[in-house]
Amino acid sequence: MDALQLFLDNFADWQSFVRIWPLLWQGLQLTVLLAAVTLPLAVLAGLAIAILYSFHNRSLNILLLVWIDLFRSFPVLVLLILIFYGLPFLGLKLPSFAACVLALALNNSGYYGEIFRAGIEAVPPGQREAARALGLQPLPLIFLVILPQAIARVLAPLASNSLELVKTTSIAALVALPELLRSARVAQEQTYNPTPLTAAAVIFFVLLWPFARWVARLERDMLTRQR
């Protein structure tokens, strides 16, 4: 019983939580904003990469594959350091928020680009031929015929990668951006116990668990369709 009370006093102290909640709330709002800005930018960048790749221009496709492989292989943490601390040496200094958005969007554009590309390539060639026979031009063909089928095929990996992106927003603490994890660390220094970190973990779990269950369901449905 004493051990349980000691654990609660250090990791789940209610009075500490109440005192630091405004700080955690501020961090949570910034985390949500960071994800809300980065996610559509990364998705659009990946979609643009996949659409350009679908035109099968050899030189362009080589460049696109280099982009995809580069940013999928580059650790996002290192990328953020280069953007935030390296670009000022070239005369370009970005605010913490913009640097985080850029690092996350560039990193995930490679993942989304590969996911969309795989979806587009999985659409049977007969669909393109039928659309051309109806007189559709290349862009309407892509947006009206190919993309709806491609997205349906890769919805599970798209959702899974989006979940990972939201979790990766915690790297913003590296550049002192007061998102949820950074706010929890500051609050920990004020309360002298790990309760704020426990609270941040619980908040992340409550926010992301429904999304994680949805992703798991999509993955099961995809496996069922493949059998």
In short:
Helices cover 83% and strands 0% of the residues. It has ten helices and no strands.
List keywords for this structure.
mainly alpha, 227 residues
Query: Beta-sheet strand percentage?
Result: under 5%
* Low-pLDDT segments: none
What shape does the CA trace take? elongated
Order of helices and strands: HHHHHHHHHH
Count every beta strand, where a strand is a DSSP E run of 2 or more residues. 0
**Mean pLDDT across residues:** 87
3D structure, described in words:
83% of the residues lie in helices and 0% in strands. The chain has 10 helices and no strands. The chain is elongated, with a radius of gyration of 22 Å. The model has no long low-confidence stretch (mean pLDDT 87).
Secondary structure: elements and pairs:
Elements lengths: L1 H10 L2 H41 L3 H16 L2 H11 L9 H27 L2 H9 L4 H16 L1 H14 L11 H12 L3 H32 L1
